[in-house]
## 1
Amino acid sequence: MIRWTGPLLVALALLGPQAISAQPPTVEGVAIDPDAELVVGLADDTTNMDPRIGMGSIRSNYIRQVFESLVDVDPQGRPVPGLALSWKPVNELTWEFALRRGVTFHDGEPFNADTVLFNLDRFFRRNLDKWGLKDVLAATSFEKTYPFVTRWEKVDDHTVRVHTSEPSPTLWDFIGREPIVPRAYTIKNGVDGLNEHPVGTGPWKMVEWKRKTSMVFERNDAYWGTKPLFHTMRFQTIPEGAARIAALRAGQVALIEGVPPFDAPALAQDGKLKVVSSPQKLSCRIYVNARPKDKYDSGGKDGLFADQRVRLALNLAVNKDAIVKKIFNGYALANASPVASVSYGYAAQEPYPYDPARARALLAEAGFRDTNPLTLQLLFPAKHYGQSFDEMTPAVAEMLKDVGVQVTIKPVDFATLLQTASKGTLPPNGGFAACRTGNNLDADDYLRDWASISLINWAPYPPELMALYTATRREVDPPKRLKLLADLQRQVRDWAPVVALYQEVKVYALSARVLRFTPLPELNMDFRGVAVKK
Amino acid sequence: MRAFLLRRALHAVFVLWGVVTAVFFLVRLTGDPTPFLVDQTATQQEIAEARHRLELDRPLHVQYLEFLRAVPRGDFGMSISEKRPAMGMVLEHLWPATIELAAAALVLSTVLAIPLGVASATHKNRAVDHASRLASLFLQSMPSFWLGLMLILLFAVELGGLLPAFGSGSVRHLILPAVTLAAAPLAQNVRLIRSGMLEVLQQDYVRTARAKGLAERFVIYRHALRNAAIPVITVTGLSLGFMLSGAVIIETVFSWPGMGRLIVQAVPGRDFPVIQAGVFVFALIFVGLNLIVDLLYTVVDPRVRLR
């Protein structure tokens, strides 16, 4: 991932502070400060550090500095070896992970097969009594989501096998991307101890956590991989976007996230600053009610958007290029695939053209004319996804009105939206604007959205697509599976379960003193190999 | 006095019971926190299981009675988002951050208001009075988030980092948020002192004091100001309650780790225990401040008797 300027720097880093003081280390010919503190301005603090409690978009960034998973990710979003050197299916019902040797947790506890077995027990809530561990209310209940994982075993100190009752081509992903916690430390200190004083194998050790204020990390000098080239990192909570920018311009933080799209050009023109961006997995859509009447609290009516032509018409009515340019200043992607462009198995799809005339025609074919217009009650979670999203939703509503859809926007708080969606109380003509993201790499993370009824599934797969989806879940041969995934994405694009709006591009601004920071298409930032100019 | 205090203590218990009861039921009217705790692809069954594990599926009256039993122990349950005792979270944001900021803003808004208000009254319709009134008008009209950002841009960016843009822990960190928080109450106090002083300065006893040959400074600060201060005490008590119970916008702009932002963030996240603990502490603060204000009346004006 990181290319050094020369062997001298490697030698200096290995020799430690004495050597560094004798000959200042450099990156790309620039002298760097190995003792520097880097302050990063973030919109919010994490609520937990125990990854089992949950890994939302904010939490992930904190948790993954300290903890690592078996499968790591590169700046293009591709899976690369992490705590596992390799993973492979031994047969249709067994996966084998070969673990990295010589890795230790921050407290010196070795990482080995027993660690992985212990973590699998926690994922699937097994043997918690045996380990004396409190059960946490995990966001993802593995035993429910992946009931086909039957058992796991240690082959030797550095090899683990996981057995399933049916083929599971994505097991490397949903198990491999979960952060790994230490066994002995967690048993000794309990999950509360782990949560308050996390100990991982990652490049950073957490040394101080002031809730809602800041978290301080120190470089893990025993880290097995590419170390950060500065000593201390502070994640500083600065909730207000304008205050984050002011703090960056004042030089009091060196890097900020969540730069508003229209502030980015001005910051980029400042000679002391840089602006970088990366596509994210956050896909924003309008979910419309296409559920059959027995799949929600319907009052005996099928969802009004069950007809594929209607959903396709809505997609053709939205001018996505205008949204990307006018609202996101180019910092967003129009993506017609149901899968994020940075996911493993993504296959680019033909964009939905902006074609209001065709949209009107499709609505008319489906029986919705001026005398009998289509209505849409659109729930809109204001002040949740940011200002651009809040500007976009009414704009999209106007575009839909232009093709004759009678749209009523109902702003709600996010909790109300979640509750409506989870209870299945959306009206037959209801829909909601929302974004979804994921901690996993594989396209399945998105394609499973329409497989079982959940709070974001308002258009369950018809039998033929369900059969194709099931085939992607059974095929373990990667080339064959990639072909199936591409085929499913094409068919889902045509079937149009949602109104695809945009995929997020995250914008960061940083001091020109920060070298080699590359944003990931993941929920977290990666500071391995990053340096601070002297 | 003892009877007064006893009666106020009983009133306080009743008020606090009313507040915690209202909050208990009101927050539950907003809905269910469980969907926040599960994955977006969670099924209804998984959500129901999560609700069961949080014991939110028990009858409401059972939850309420259990809650009432726990409140006298200061036990408001565990935060749903952070899985830590809710009251502990509230108290760690109350002290030192919220109290520090409120105390600094209180001192600024009263200590500066007295000379400014007095000068304005004693120089009525002259330049000092016009400047003071105009400044008060601006300070009261300016939205606090705008004032805060302007102060950050001026002192942290344009003046080369003279003061920090965010954070807490030192006097330098305290200055900008305290000034922003004090701005509106300061302006209000200046106007109140001015109008109170203008009224009092017309009274016979002030004329008598002057006729006795007392120094003007003594007349103003010893005789007049004391009588003009009662409305200021009332308003300051309420302002302090506002400052302590969460200057949310200021905490957000300056990344100040106070109690207000904690509670406001808990509301959309439906973190019932944190909301309940926070509102209980707010109520306690207001009840306590009202009592202190009532007691202060007797100190400032001996004619006031508490019964």
## 2
Amino acid sequence: MSPNSDLQALSSALAAAVQSAGASVVTVDARQRFPASGVVTEPGLVLTASHVVQEDEIKVTLPDGDELNAELLGRDSNSDLALLKLSAQKGTAAQTNENPQIGQLALALGRPTAEGVQASLGIASAIGGPVRTHHGGLLESYLRTDAIPYPGFSGGPLVDAEGRVLGINTSGLGMGASLTIPAKLAWQIAKALEEHGSVKRGYLGVRSQLVEIAEDARKALKREQETGLLIMGVEKNSPAAAAGLIVGDIIVGFAGQSISDHDELLLQLNSGVVGKAIDLEVLRGGKPQVVKVTIGEQAESREQHFRGPIRGRRFGYHHWGWRR
Amino acid sequence: MALPIDPSASPSGQQFGTVFASVVSTAKASLVAVFDKRHGAGAGILWSTDGLVLTNRHVLGRRHPKVLLADERQLDAEVIATDEEVDLALLRVDACDLPTARIGDSTQLRVGELVFTLGHPWGQRNAASFGVISHLGSAQTRGRRGLIPIIRTDARLAPGNSGGPLLNAAGEVVGINTMIVGGNQGIAIPSAVAVDFVEQVKVKSSV
């Protein structure tokens, strides 16, 4: 019976993982459809999927059946995460695992009903990112799993075989299948939502197009970089305008990092650079130049800006940080 | 409890693979196929050495069912009892010394436990799948006259799995695979319900 007992050990370890992780998985009832799930990050705080929070009245049910009112501290449509504050400092904080490995066993958990925690087994299938979401923003990293995301699993965790949270599952990013926001990124976003009610994103104030760098300019740049971002428009009163950036400049570097496409620039315009003076490297008249730009803070979530016909890559150019 | 995720730790992935296979091959001896409709077949398990077969009620049609044993013997079966409410049926075939399924205690199940299924999905004989217990809940019976506990699993099921066993990691039958919902969730009737059903039949008809 010894080989069987290995299997039974694995089986009961998985059940134990569900039980321990399930202590932090709560029911989030804030939409007309059936409830979804959430994860307690610390007593009194619940991280969930933004798209399941649709109503002002938010009810959170803890694993012990305790039903609490909750308020929305903030949401980030870019990662489809929302942070809720419970009316009491209750709940068991989840443990995290910030180093997912492709192929490791993973369980998707949810608690959409009062009948207890639910689970589905799979593996961590892929680690990816940065990727552009259908909201127009850039998601720094993501996980994919083949565990089945059953209805109401959005906002619930993907956990490892020891019950530690690998990430938060969501089907709300509209990228085909369900996606998992890795724990490291999710907890960073939760912290930003707790402190500011939003995730700060850098604001430059230019419209640009991807262009090839001319041979001469490339030589002047003294590095193997084939593309840059041609500035097509500078917004009034923007950090870019204040720094003296003009139409025709080609952005090729940001704080010492080369910028050869839009995603690379978006990745640099994160919360860390807001308010900081950054060396922006541009080609002006084919000659490299460094311009100091004090990065502003994007006023609203990108989602609202990008709901126009010029959203996305279809028209060959992007714009960001365009204040209304 | 820590898991041997490190490949150098024992048991290895290959060993686990072998164990998966041994659980399935042991349980296959008591798996049968039940034919009663013009198309397709259901599954069933050998309940007693003297020929009792448990399957789903909905696997049976109006005609007389035939049971195909794991050793390829095809036998006529007599329907002893059916219960629409819990979708179970007890048949008898004329045979003895049959390898019976080991029945586990479904009341001890936990969400996340490993489970295996055996059956004949889409007519593929003796096919296995595996997953975990997804949810332990309850559902209304077919006639909506009461609630019964049900097991939900992410193990893949298809038509032809009905009546087949849901096995735990010890190879014991903990449920009877009965339905598929939403295309990707299997529903099994817990073994405790099956045991009750068979006991009641025994009391009533003294088989």
